[in-house]
Amino acid sequence: DEISLNRTVPDQREEECRNWDYPTDLPTASVILVFHNEGWTTLFRTVNSVINRSPPQFLHEVVLVDDKSELEHLHQKLEDELKKPYYAKVKLVRNQEREGLIRARNNGAVAATGEVVVFLDAHCEVTYNWLPPLLAPIHEDRTTLSVPVIDGIDWNDFGIHPVYAKGSHSRGIFEWGFFYKEGTLPDKEAKKAAHHSEPYNSPTHAGGLFAIDRAWFEELGWYDPGLWVWGGENFELSFKVWMCGGRSVWVPCSRVSHVYRGHSCSSCGSGTLTNKFKGVPTTLRNYKRVVEVWFDDEYKEFFYTREPLAKLVDMGDISQQLKLKKDMNCKSFDWFMTEIAYDVFDKYPKLPPNKYWGELKNEATQTCLDSMGKHPPTEIGNGGCHGGGGYQMMMLNTEGQLVNGEWCVKADGQDKITLVWCDMGKTDGPWKFLTDTQQMRHTKYDRCLALHPETKQLVLLACDENNLYHKWQWGTITPHWART
Fold first, then answer.
1. Is the full-model pTM beyond 0.70?
2. How confident is the model at residue 155 (pLDDT cuts 50, 70, 90)?
3. Is 72 helix (H, G, I), strand (E, B) or coil?
4. Which of these, 26, 18, 16, lies nearest to 131 by C-alpha position?
5. CB burial of residue 208 (10 Å; 0-12, 13-18, 19+)
6. 206-228 pLDDT tens trace
7. CA–CA distances in Å: residue 78 to residues 61, 65, 87, 121, 259
């Protein structure tokens, strides 16, 4: 709150960016900011930076969408502030009920009257000449989705720092459990550019900040209105843009700074939305909708291998999304993966199926293998079996890789079992479950996974089929929301 609402920000652009000339007839933009219980100064630094650093001939309006905030300063005080002449281009839309980020963005796009809609989070600060580079690729081809390069605003002191190394180009990809990832721009794409600072193709984007022609967004059905709160909408839009005749580019000369919170807050204060689907995680439900609409059958199995509980989720009616895909004669997901997102396979190959999945229970202690919510590298533990999955969801694929999500169980030497990030580009591992003796054998060391009878720590020991501390059972996981 002590920082000015109109502060000077560092210019993080490449040197080349200062030399570009942009068309004078670029489309007009409606900048849409969705907020829920946002801080006063972070919200208004976003609004003010947009007004101050956008060429007025291209900034049609700023649309604030209030997703039913409870904080007092976002009620009458906000409306009074927006009556000032300085905010003449700002329009306030209030949701009557809490709808979540995705549907609130749809509401903002419907209310917008500019030719292009630009979505930003409500805790951003745009930098010098950010808007023309973002609009230019859309002016060239209206079916383009353009994404600015994001700099970080530190949660603690609000200092602005680049996220990416100087001169580097990254682009958005994903792994099969739908965690958003980024990779270095492949040489194949880099060679297409005459200048280093040109926009370049990207399979997907993080989701928070981008621009798209409003009419094209509408033709694509906006965001799938069956997606709720947060999660998967960036993939859904990216897939249908590419597969239905458009393109997605990252724009090095458009820089926007974004506050990265000190904690995960994608659905903070989501209230009744948390239990809208009887406890089913809305993100997992969203992912399943996206997968079932846009993935080919082969690729669907990779998702269900990573997220087997998704098969228990009721995703709702997707008939309208499948109709849109058919009516627009959209390409296959295999085309997308082969022609556009080919670099995904370098880090995240096609997954072999799970041979076993569920909780892995030790017969002696009746406790389950448990990553305990710790991030790797760390020792993996064991705890009381709860049958809900999460940190106790273990999966052993047909090639011997034992995982919890995207983390692998590794024998560090012969006496220490750790949880590590799985090696990029690999799907194999050293583990084999022996059904007749109920042992988990490490094929490299020819020893078995066991609980130490005194310390209760996981270790590798010489296999003993008569020792219950060496024996494991695979148990079914049924989360509370799937129990009748």
1. yes
2. confident
3. helix
4. 26
5. middle
6. 988 999 999 999 999 999 999 99
7. 17, 12, 11, 18, 21
